[in-house]
Amino acid sequence: xxxxxxxVKVYTLNEDxxxxxxxxxxxxxxxxxxxxxxxxxxxxxxxxSLLLECKINPNTVYQKQQDTLIVWSEAENYxxxxxxxxxxxCDEIWEKICQVQGKDPSVDISQDLVDESEEERFHxxxxxxxxxxxxxxxxxxxxxxxxxxxxxxxxxxxKLALTLGNEDYIKKLLELFHVCEDxxxxxxxxxxxxxxxGIFLLNQTALFEVMFSEECIMDVIGCLEYDxxxxxxxxxxxxxxxxxxxxxxxxxxxxxxxxxIHQTYRVQYIQDMVLPTPSVFEENMLSTLxxxxxxxxxxxxxxxxxxxxxxxxxxxxxxxxxxxxxxRQELVNFLxxxxxxxxxxxxxxxxxxxKTLSNMGILPALEVILGMDDTQVRSAATDIxxxxxxxNPSMVREFVMxxxxxxxxxxxxxxLIIEHMICDTDPEHGGAVQLMGLLRILVDPENxxxxxNKTEKTEFLGFFYKHCMHVLTAPLLANTTxxxxxxxxxxxxxxxxxxxxxxxxxxxxxxxxxxxxxxxxDILRRVLVLMxxxxxxxxxxxxxxxxxxxxxxxxxxxxxxxxxxxxxxxxKAFLNNGSRYNLMNSAxxxxxxxxxVEDIKSLxxxxxxxxxxxxxxxxxxxxxxxxxxxxxxxxxRQDNPKLDSMRSILRNHxxxxxxxxxxxxxxxxxxxxxxxxxxxxxxxxxxDKTKNDxxxxxxxSKFMERKKxxxxxxxxxxxxxxxxxxxxxxxxxxxxxxxxxxxSSQSPATNLPGSPGSPGSPGSPGSPGSxxxxxxxxxxxxxxxxxxxxxDYSDEEEDDDxxxxxxxxxxxxxxxxxxx
Length: 820
Prior knowledge:
Belongs to the SMEK family. By secondary structure, the protein is an alpha+beta fold.
């Protein structure tokens, strides 16, 4: 069979009964060996990947709709649709389907050959069609029973739909509806309700096209007003004709487009308001109604998009100062709904749609609208801007940067967004939250593009911090001029919390831009003023901002924090919180615990030197005592640099390992079965097993052990120790009798400090650092499996710089001030 290719879009129906676009490609039909039959194949036009491979099943019902759609159910709750670009392509594939199923291509529905009872099979052979009672008032009950009895059987449903479509039966039923209303025949109207509802559940596009035609749709809605379960009929027709008014904000010249808009609105109304909530059995029987509405919306957007005169007039009136407020509100609401309809388009069509709006000048128009006083118009404009920013933020950023070359900062679109966020009058700041979300998308580097010639991130962030950041931080700076917030009402606190949330996002995702801004403008000090707010959520926002900065472990930030003494507001808030166990208490402790765990030395020194007296009594957590211990250990290293050097040697000998050994150990670890290991058994690498226990001793532990020895013992050791050729080192390796200290290398390198003949080796008599044989064992460094020598340390130590002396003086004065 000849392989034909046609351009199609593939759709699947999701759980919410909405059509999801699966991509665009070219469809063909052919025999697939794996599926053992003729199949439909769709390959993506972008990369040739397989979008759809589906066998044409003789038992599957295929429907051809609107000349360019083929819809079918591949499995229960899994509906598929092919939307063809050309009618000819649809007809050709439809012929292939009908050829496989042995059907006439002139029909729009292929017959469903499901297993039915012997009685139905006999009836099918004897009667090719389903005979309906004559359309008379006296037989309405019989017709209603026939429709209801046909719904459970797929075969009878198909026959009923075929008969209803061929004999204008629906139009005759609607004529009876007028008769029943004129005669006030309530029983007959109830029967008509059941009949029309049953026709909806037949789920056939051919019947929908008849029912939703201009001449029939209002009568269909009228029939659905007389629900037998209700004591009084609904008044849907009255609402549609009198209450709901169609407004042409811009005259639509195309009658087909106008009719399609009316039809879509009424069918949507039927689906949402008129039809009763479908049962579990009925829900899947209304999938074609969802499809009808979906493809109608796609068609409306396409027709409007092609009408250049319509769009030109729309944007001209939007931006015209002479347009009255009511008219402009209608125009904006129309544009908002137009953009909402565009969400039904597939990605490439949606891209073309927004590109068309951009070329028409939608962003300058929105800029004009956002500058107006009407809150409803501004709200609708914000919704439209949301569609644009969420779909293509780069387009908005490019417009803003181009605009900055011509206009002042005050009238830039992005500054208008910030001003409306700041000036939101809603007590709950609903609009401000939406606008803050838009700003967050615009300044997010993750969705910024990078090309060979330029980087959008660098350009836009440079622009934003130069032209816009001062507008965003204005309310923060204005409210933090004193030691506590100038205004501390709930609405102001909510606004500042939004500003802080955006600034925190910037700290996390921007690098030097936000760092320079915070340090140069002293932003962190201003933010920490909000720690004194009576609103706990605002104080926590300020603390979160500082915690994010500390989390970066950036020494530029750390120096800024220390020079400005920016832990003071945090410590004050912690002390003022008292013994209350709340979120503020936990958040502050977590911040100090992070500093301790990450061993941020500069901040540890600063906190202990300035604030230890205020924090030393906090004993319900060990965080502050842990900071003090870290501080003391650091001071010990500073006071005794020789010890620090020895530890570095120990550390190097402990951790220097061959890369190949590491790779082999990792491979062995991954090959080890967890079940093979006993409970509690640690995974130890082979090289680690060969190490002596003495090699693993932590140098800090050794130092602490030596420090605990009594001064008298140290003096005794010094008297017994006689180092030939030089004075004893300034620190003592004095261990108790019988204790051996091992300093062994893990690699077989030559000329190690402990190798024979090297300087300082015990094997070199008379060399510096050699130890005579009569040296006491308490002062000797013995070896296990190898020789290790002492290291010659310089006795000279440099004095502190004058700048450090001045800084220490400043710290002491600040410390005294804080303690007082």
